[in-house]
Amino acid sequence: MIEYIVPIAGFTGLAFAAYLARYVLNQDKGTQKMQDIANAIAEGANAFLHRQYSTIGKLAVIVAAILAAVWYIAAPENKGAAAFKVGFAFLTGAAMSAISGYVGMYISVRSNVRAAAAARKSASDALTVALRGGAVTGLLIVCLSVLGVAGIYYLYSALFGLGKDTPLYIVGYGFGASFVALFAQLGGGIYTKAADVGADLVGKIEAGIPEDDPRNPAVIADLVGDNVGDCAGRGADLFESTAAENIGAMILGILLFPIAGFAGILFPLVARALGIFATIAGLFSVKMKEDEDPMKALARGYVITSILAAIFFYIAVKIMFAPTIPGHMWLFASGLVGIAMSVVFLYLTDYYTSDKYRPVQEIAESSQTGPATNIISGLAVSMETTALPAITICASLLLAFYFGGKSGVAHGGLYGTALATMGMLATCAYILAMDTFGPITDNANGIIEMSGFSGEVRKVTDKLDAVGNTTKALTKGYAVGSAGLAAFLLFQAYMEAVHINIVDIAKPDVFVGGFVGVMLVFIFSSLAIRAVGRNAYVIINEVRRQFREIPGIMEGKAKADYAACVDICTRGALKEMVLPGMLPVLGPVLIGVSFKYAYGSGGEAVASFLMMGTIGGVILAMMMNNGGGAWDNAKKYIEAGAYGGKRLADGSKNPTHAAAVVGDTVGDPLKDTAGPSLHVVIKLLSTITLVLAPLFV
Amino acid sequence: MIEYIVPIAGFTGLAFAAYLARYVLNQDKGTQKMQDIANAIAEGANAFLHRQYSTIGKLAVIVAAILAAVWYIAAPENKGAAAFKVGFAFLTGAAMSAISGYVGMYISVRSNVRAAAAARKSASDALTVALRGGAVTGLLIVCLSVLGVAGIYYLYSALFGLGKDTPLYIVGYGFGASFVALFAQLGGGIYTKAADVGADLVGKIEAGIPEDDPRNPAVIADLVGDNVGDCAGRGADLFESTAAENIGAMILGILLFPIAGFAGILFPLVARALGIFATIAGLFSVKMKEDEDPMKALARGYVITSILAAIFFYIAVKIMFAPTIPGHMWLFASGLVGIAMSVVFLYLTDYYTSDKYRPVQEIAESSQTGPATNIISGLAVSMETTALPAITICASLLLAFYFGGKSGVAHGGLYGTALATMGMLATCAYILAMDTFGPITDNANGIIEMSGFSGEVRKVTDKLDAVGNTTKALTKGYAVGSAGLAAFLLFQAYMEAVHINIVDIAKPDVFVGGFVGVMLVFIFSSLAIRAVGRNAYVIINEVRRQFREIPGIMEGKAKADYAACVDICTRGALKEMVLPGMLPVLGPVLIGVSFKYAYGSGGEAVASFLMMGTIGGVILAMMMNNGGGAWDNAKKYIEAGAYGGKRLADGSKNPTHAAAVVGDTVGDPLKDTAGPSLHVVIKLLSTITLVLAPLFV
Question: Has the ipTM of the complex gone over 0.90?
Fold first, then answer.
């Protein structure tokens, strides 16, 4: 009865998260000034989350009602039960996602000041605090997602009888998670980049004051933004990834039912549960030696997590599949493909976005001839960065399918792709911990800078901040890679759910469905980028107003009105997230329903829409994420001294650096708003089509 | 025997082109100084074309040999005939494309100085010379393309017996045209933008001298570039469009053979032939009233051409299909959809790229906060511009399919989409005339400026230059729209040729084929953009060297070494075009052959590769073309006085304008190199897969 491991792992993970949270909260909070700043950040983040969730909550209730109504009408029998199953699952998914986002954020905005305080002692102490703070979010998200899926599965089995089709009824959970994730990532992404661009353009460029300078009225909004974008936003993204992909894998598990019984359906849950143990062990193993590159310590922990995940995967395959499937070792091989792919993706992302390699250096070099050549070269690099990741996704998919097929089970190939996705997700909690490490160290650095520290402490937090930027970039690579790999899985789950076997793009309506799908991801990105521009514009005017109207602000005699910027940014982000957010929700419905009536082919047109939209979305997201990261690091490469550094020998501003700053600013909304939101869109397209399947066929 | 109209129209068109060429060459050539400049441009263009064609020629001979070998091996019987048919058609297509490019260019670089000379008399005279010069290229390309396809068709029918499968053997012609077009557009695009960016960055930004200033050593290279990029490049693009789409439509015509006999196969040729008459009439109708907006006169001519094309289309349908197909009026309706779509596309392109509307004005407005916000807003607009064109393509496709289906013929729907493409291409020669009008007026303006004219003449050529920029932008919209509409047609022709009926993207290998297809267009664009950057860098260094080493150059006392820049740019462009050029040639071969052996599914995987690559390519090309055009016109909008104009009241440079110049420079390689080259790539993917079909199945 290995499946009992699921609740055991889930609750163990939660207990461990609570332990880590306690550990972090017990650390020294630093000076009063540090605490004041941290409190301002916490308040701002809290206010944003509060308003954001209340907006999302209202929308979610409406959507739940519509969903229930659709299923009530479409279900051939037991109409009430069908409506309840989907509606309840949706609300549970939405609520679980919101809870994990909220609690994760609560810890993050308290870890930052404690990491800053620890930095006064040693880099190693600061690293530990920041990583453990991040690990709370990571564990919380993964455990709540696993417990949620398992809970609903067992609840529905108990209430409605244990049928093999149960996973089909809990897709609502995945859609609920996607729905919250879309708005969380979009709203958070718009918030963080509007504040960042706004603060930089007026502060750094117009007023000539450094980053994180307390005189800049938008500086707190900028620090809040890192939390709501990277922590709450990406957390919700990966919450839904794990949920949706888990459910998708369970649906494909139904295919194995005739041979393996419930093992195929439950295996994804078990694999994820074991991944939690691997992550806990990996997190404990991270000890940074003094003077060591912090990235090395984090990478060591990741390698340990991956190796343990592979071992646990092997054990689970042995226990669950050995009795019924003679070729079960091939299924293990499929899982290994996923684990290997996640490691490869981290290396590829590093290659494209680190200043140690050609792509970033090329952008830095071309900055010498001004901002135009910086942008041209950055665009070329952005597009180039889609190559190796796309090939990796394709190769992994074909390999996992091949291995799965060798197992000798009917549909083993498809199940192999599901196992690869589960393998990739096994280390998800560790990845999330590294991701949330980013905003915590970024904030710690800001707090240290605003509190007037200098010397060794500044160096420590600067270094950790740089590592945090790297981990954030790597996480995005991982997130988009998992989206790409999962696309095929979710697509197959959809086809299984609507009972179609082929998607023939040679039919004009199916072709058009795909065309519109690719278009949708471009329009969505356009709206997301524009939302940042519009919101930034409002912030810029507010900062300019404060510089103009508050006397003594530039001399540091009067205090800037941080709260006004936070408030404006919050309202702007929530307003701007609605239009782009509705697009991926309404798009598939429109295509599916209209093509159903026009051609009787709603299911197939939607499948093509989903598939091509996903391919286009994965490639566009990679382009924006990696390109933005490369621009960012090209600027940092110059700041570190290349091509003259920040200032020339005569003390004047280096135009090469100024050109690189333009590229960095352009990359911001791409890599932190549009790109990450596209990950969510891709998966939301899958969950919404899955959950609304009765409308299309 | 209406098909005799084909050679009649073709030779009439050629005769008319000869008449126009004579008319243009008989015009006044202006002052000696003007002639000197024009000669320098003509020499540079000639040198580039000569070297480019000799490179392409060598590659073409190799490819022809490989093609012939593939068909020799693959053909089940008559191996020699099969090899000859494909190889000879390929070389003919390549040669015809090269001839039309060469002759068109010969007239263009002689029309520019004559248009400049005429501008001294009146705007109307200058417009007439420039449009007639452009019309030579337009007619030449369309007539040679029609005569080539028809000639090979009749030749092969005579040599090998008139079988309904003859069109399948002349796809080599289309591939030959695609092959030349790819390198012509790519090499020309790299040349023109490297020269442009190089001349601007050193001349305008570093040295502070105006555009087209004779002191700038790269100024002649820049003027040459407009000819080799817009005239020879786009000419080759549309030569291959008309050829490939014509052949594709003829292949689909085979489907109608049981009912309509050869009428279905020959109709595409007849429709195109009648389009030539419509264009001749339209060109003659263009008379510009003094003080009229030149664009209005050109638009009037286009409307007349379109209406005549529709009437002729009706007549052709009546004569060819009325006897056998009772529902033939529905086929006419499909053709009308294409004609209407081409008009709609011109309006949409105008909306997205003209400074009269929101998108361009939005970019101009955001330039106020610097280059970063200009680029962010431009990227958002770029992505947005894919929406309405994509919807238009999809709607046209569905509508043409619907109408075709209503005709009651088996496969009428598919044939309807072919007729829509033919409808769209009916006005192609007029569009090409407007396109070539662009480089002619651009050059005329440059010649006037370099010859030291001022006052009224400058205003006239400035105005015509601006109109030329608009027509160039519109033509690109038309070219990508026709590529989008034709994609489905060519895809169906491919499926007909390889005898597969469905393309099921639910299979992992077919899915992966599509994924790689989308990736390919991104990588291709990356390489094309980078090639411009690299070549521009070389030009920048050469211009800097001349400014440094030639004493008196800035005072206008010493003459710049134009030839050196032209030579460097030529060598650079030819070197840089090879790598991106090989990608779309080798990509499908690699996918097709490897998947054939791994999965036995080469045909289907290639179909998916082709289809998704095309959708991705059309959308990416629209994004780059329209975005680049919008950036360009946002700059011009500011120069016309918005947001402070070029210089502020105190005479200092307006930073808003400087920000817009950055956007304009970024847009250059997108709209004039990568975007237009992608049109060709899309169609090349179709023709190469068609011609290499025996390798994949």
Answer: yes
